[in-house]
Amino acid sequence: MAPQLGPHELMHVFSFLEARDLLRAAQVNKVWNEVAMTKELWRQLCLRRWASCNAFPMVVGTQTWRQYYFCRSELEFRVESGRPQDFISKAVSGHTGKIDQLAYVTPHEYRFDERAKSVVCTVSSDCTVRAWDLHEGAEIWSSPVQPAPLMSLVAYPLLQLVVTVDTQGLIIGWKAETGSLWASFCLPTFCSSMEACGHSEGPFLMVACAEGNLYTLTVPQLQVVSKVATFSHTSVSLTCSPDQQWVFAFAQGSDLGPKVFYTQSLLYPSEDGLPVSTSLPVRLSSRACWAPEEAARLMVMHRDVRGTHLVITTFDLKARKSRDRVNTLEQQQLASFPLPNTMTPHLMQGHGSQVILLASRSELVLFTIHGLQLMAFQDHQRPITSMWVDPTRVITSSLDLSLRVYLWNKKNTCPVLKSCYQLPGGSHRWASGFTHVKSDSMSIAGVEARSNGTSILRSYCYKVQLG
């Protein structure tokens, strides 16, 4: 009679199996079932399939690793298929004005239990900020009417904090769970740009105002850490790098070269008060984005020397230390290419380390940083208004009252984007198109502009049998 494998030997053998084979092995007998259901085996399966489990850990005590595996597998299937039965669509109304921005405050990206829900906050010209449960299609809370219309917001999901700014420069931090006011700070002038910075040494807020100054504030206290002059008396746009180590600042349409600041020098200013920065050798910049998989790779859209053609130039940045302190920034021009004269891009995003996505009118176009056009999509009938890009999907919103979902093919060495399905909005009689779109793992939220000048949220929540 052949000797039987013990639990330790079975554990080793089962560690090479996929989920389907592991379930079959569990049906052989009681011993095999106990080993096949071992927590560590299913944990390894999850980590092998989704490296992001380390970035978005399972909520302790709410589910087993086996439940997590099957719930997330089901979610991926529904996201890829996009059939009407795969999601629940709701129209969520409450604002009496135009919604100018939205942000997710969901603290856990992948949570599959009775408390799983997607929460977004919105700011509106009706002078309120509101929080919404997208799965229930209901308002959670609304702020008191503020002195001026709210124009932008950023979120810190792990802190359950939302920060808003109004048209007069008043910045307020709100508790995302209750809507109670946490802290406030007033800029001397109109705010032109605001960026959340989740730095390793603590969260901060970067704010540029119309006079050209860049403020760095602590979060959640909203106390000033530093104030730096960027471009005199002009509106400045900001964008932080994926690792939060760099801040790109530029004045649209200015002959002055855009600047890159080293975040650490803004958080801990030196005695002379001058942050570590560098000016890029381009002019008339209009758009910029960072490469998500390269911490210090920046793509900038600008005009050529004559000012006649649009060009995209890619820079790699590097910090140089002296006496354990960064005191200079080095820049290397990695690539540059002119855009076709037929293109007038108004949206720009990066993917991976080599891909640039551009929205030009109703067309979505993908280029490499060296100028090779990978693909182009003309799925929309009217201009694209917003674009959401993450490692698995691209979602576009349009004035044709639709959202388009694209999926990255991870099996290809060269990034390939596939146009998958369309999520329709409401009636053209009452709506004038989608103006914004954002997403988390479980849902998609779009801002639908109404013909009467107001806005509503339209949510699409994927159905998953919770563990």
TrEMBL record:
Keywords from the UniProt entry: Ubl conjugation pathway
PROSITE patterns: FBOX
GO CC, one annotated term: cytoplasm
InterPro entries documented for this protein: F-box-like_dom_sf, F-box_dom, F-box_SCF_Substrate_Recog, WD40/YVTN_repeat-like_dom_sf, WD40_repeat_dom_sf, WD40_rpt
Tagged with keyword Nucleotide-binding: no
Pathway terms, separated by semicolons: Protein modification; protein ubiquitination
Annotated F-box domain residues: 1-45
Protein name, UniProt field: F-box and WD-40 domain protein 17
Organism: Peromyscus maniculatus bairdii
Gene name in the database record: LOC102917077
